[in-house]
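User: Could you walk me through two proteins back to back? I'd like the raw sequence and the structure tokens for each, with a short line separating them so I can tell where one ends and the next begins.

Assistant: Of course. Protein one, sequence then structure:
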Amino acid sequence: MAADNAATGGVGGINNGTLLGGDGTGDARVSLFSVDLGLVKRARALDGTVLPDLAQVNPGQEIYFTISVDNPTDAPVTDVRMTDLLDESQFAYVPGTMQEVLVASGANDAAVWSGSWNPLTDPVGPPDDVASITNSGGPPGPDRLTLGSETPQINQPLTVPARGLRAIRFRVRVL
């Protein structure tokens, strides 16, 4: 998707549709492009196998959730913000399991899973602070995951570099 806009300006207060020297030689057309980013949440077995929709899981079983943002453009996407609430009647977060990975845009499930995952801390604050998980005020235990500087858990801004896919994973126990 694209939209063309015109910028005007000139010398001495004369608006002549140019931004170069005020003499009409500049190009005042600005094109804005909009690209939908790929946002995916998946459930995976502990070995990384993607669980199909409506897959059977058992109480006490641990699985991973992954959330990924794919940026296929030539420009970085800054200040990405997301919130994901766990259904505490079905899942309990496993503390200390949050990790992130950065791979090439368009990477398949196997490439994402086999990437170099880096640990993240659960609470808001150093040393990583791009994601955190806290208790939303319901039953005891962390259940509100935020990525980026999303309120009320103000993390560091989350950036997805040009032609990059950034993913966060964490483990839950099925209740």
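----
Protein two, same layout:
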Amino acid sequence: MLARIRFERCPAGAVASFSGMIWAVLLLSAAWANESAAQNSSMYAAREQRQPLTIGRSSWTYESPPEVKTIKLHDIVTIIVSEQSVVISEGEMDRKKKAHGDLKLKDWILLDWLEVFPDPQGRGDPHIRGEVDNKLRAEAGIETRDSLKCRVACSVVDIRPNGNLIIEGHRTINNNEETWDVSLNGEIRPTDVLPNNTVLSENVAGLRLAKRESGHVRDGYRRGWLLRILDRWQPF
């Protein structure tokens, strides 16, 4: 049995479209071959045509890291303050002191202008006797837990010759009659600045952080001036 093959004439536009697809496939194949030949793993390309084989050239999902931002004078950097401290201290003192003295003056002299004579001490020899018994026992203990978390926007006020940044910032919050004032300064490295323009407080060298509070809440637990004097000098 003979098979009959029927040829039909295709439109000119379809032929042109098919031809364009063929040329596109050939160009992509050539580009892929050139890219493969440019890698170090290929032994067909010349030495001067080879390029380093990196993740950025071989991985489709690789994303290059953001460029490091150059921080200049008077730029703003946010410091994330997260400070916690726990102090536990105990002390005990037990002191005892005892002394005994018995002094007696048996001989003395009598001065008469430039002459010296023995003094018979007709009223008897002077005699002193005493005892000292001192005891002191004291016990003390302290336990404190502090925690402070906040964010302070600081300005770069100076740049060291080695590139380190000197920062300083203030933050004041007023709520009715309550006032919170936070001040911060220190020194940071440009490499410690995160991509979101923040720095952790643990990376701030010479950190000086001051928090002041005033208002009804502060007045409720602060010490009076007489109690502060007694605590300072401890007369008893």
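Residues 38 and 49 are 6 Å apart (CA to CA).

Let me know if you want the two compared in more detail.
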